[in-house]
Amino acid sequence: MDYWKFYYRSHKISADNSLFSSFVKQFLEQGSSLLELGCGNGRDATFFAKNHIYTTAIDQVEEEITYLQNELGSEYLSFISGDFTQLQKIRDLKPPYDCIYSRFTLHSVSALEEKQLFSDIPLFLKKNGLLAIETRGYKNSLFQKGDSVGGQEDAFIYNDHYRRFVHFESLLESLKNTLGDCEIIFAAEDKGFAPLNGVDDYFIRILARTQRGGGASLEFSL
Ligand SMILES: C[S@@+](CC[C@H](N)C(=O)[O-])C[C@H]1O[C@@H](n2cnc3c(N)ncnc32)[C@H](O)[C@@H]1O
């Protein structure tokens, strides 16, 4: 949290959306709804909203979210501060959504928090909704760099920054358990997804369409 709080003080806004957001947009219709988990400085959320996708973007850094809501909030775009691993505690959400989108945020949370998040996803995603995830996995060049975090498998602190590296096949397995008989539209751990400053590292990219979902039991669990 402190790492990102400090980072966004000098990177308040970014005009460039990620390659992943452009990839995911192809599967979304105008007028559909999207929930972004960990929106950072809102670059992808802004891109989706500009393309007439009703976008709700969550991040834990409250001062950045307040800034973004004041500057960029619109009919299509709202920013909400909160912990995306505790979705049921965020009061202003209006599930279910057509898409849940997580770019570079799954590796920011522990395995236990991931489990909590995945158990909430069927409540927040529509039937036939899309789950879009891009994250660091075992093939990423930072894997096993830095100090390992006690009691957590595959989690390291490197350059003052927590990262938990995701095992590709295990993630696919968890998604199938979470989403039921889902259609995996795209799944790979490869290069070419997020080149930055001339470096083309490995990342995991997954897009799945759920058969489960609909937010049916949410009213009872809120
Ligand atoms: C690597 S940044 C990615 C930002 C954005 N998705 C992008 O691709 O530009 C990770 C973001 O996730 C947020 N984050 C991490 N864990 C979170 C949590 N449990 N709840 C809400 N936000 C979280 C951080 O504050 C940070 O803004």
- Enumerate how many helices there are, as a single number: 7
Number of domains: 1
Q: Please state the oligomeric state of the protein chains shown.
A: single chain
Question: What is the strand content?
Answer: 25-35%
Helices and strands: which structural class?
alpha/beta
The SSE string, one letter per element, is: HHEHEHEEHEEEEHEEH
Describe the main β-sheet briefly: 7 strands, mixed
How many runs of DSSP E, i.e. beta strands?
Answer: 10
Helix content: 25-40%
Roughly how many Å apart are the termini? 26 Å
Strand order of the largest sheet: 3-2-1-4-5-10-9
Q: What is the average per-residue confidence, as pLDDT, rounded to a whole number?
A: 93
| CATH class identity | Alpha Beta
CATH superfamily: Vaccinia Virus protein VP39
Report on the architecture of this protein.
The chain is 29% helix and 27% strand. By secondary structure, it is an alpha/beta fold. The chain has one domain: Vaccinia Virus protein VP39 (Rossmann fold, 3-Layer(aba) Sandwich), CATH 3.40.50. The strands form two sheets. Strands 3-2-1-4-5-10-9 form a seven-stranded mixed beta sheet, with helices on both faces. Helix 5 runs parallel beside helix 6. It is globular, with a radius of gyration of 16 Å. The two termini are 26 Å apart. The structure holds S-adenosylmethionine. S-adenosylmethionine binds next to helix 3 and strand 2.
Describe what is shown at a glance.
The chain has 222 residues and is α/β, with parallel strands linked by helices. It has helices spanning 2-10, 19-25, 43-50, 62-72, 111-124, 168-179, 218-221; strands at residues 33-37, 54-59, 77-81, 97-103, 125-135, 147-148, 155-158, 161-164, 183-190, 203-209.
